[in-house]
Amino acid sequence: xxxxxxxxxxxxxxxxxxxxxxxxxxxxxxxxxxxxxxxxxxxxxxxxxxxxxxxxxxxxxxxxxxxxxxxxxxxxxxxxxxxxxxxxxxxxxxxxxxxxxxxxxxxxxxxxxxxxxxxxxxxxxxxxxxxxxxxxxxxxxxxxxxxxxxxxxxxxxxxxxxxxxxxxxxxxxxxxxxxxxxxx
Length: 184
Prior knowledge:
alpha/beta; Rossmann fold; 5 helices
C-alpha cells in the first residue's frame, strides 16, 4: 500500500495511469480516497491520477491535531512533493475544495488548475485574497451550464455519473471526528 510520510503523519494515497495533466482528487470531510472512484477509474485510462486519504480518515494516520485548512493544505502540498506530483489539476470536493483554494493561494506554483465540486464555505485567510488580487492569473469563478458544457463533455459525463449513480463512501471509513466545541 502506498503511503507518504509527511508532516509527522502517514498519508495513504492511490496513484495510477499516465498522461498529462495529472488529476489530484482531494476528498471532502469524512470521505476517503474512494469518494472519487468513478472519476479515478475513468481518467486513469488517459491521465495520471492520484487520490488520497486526508489525515484522520481512511487508511491515513489520525493524530489528535492538525485538522485546520492550512495544516491539511500543507499535508497535500507535502504529499505532492514526496510522491513527485507536478502541476496537477486539483479536484476538491467539499472540504477538499476549500483545501484546493488554499493550495492555489499558498502554493501557487503547484496546481495547474482547481476544480471545486460543491466546496464548503470559502472563508480565506488574509493572505489568500491578497494572493489572488496580485496574481497574474487571478481567480475566476465560472458557472458551467449544460448547453455550454460541450467542451467539457468527458468531465461532465463523469461528474453526472458520479452524482446520479453515486457510491460516495464517506462515513464508513471515517476513523476520527474533529473535537466538538462545547457549548455553555
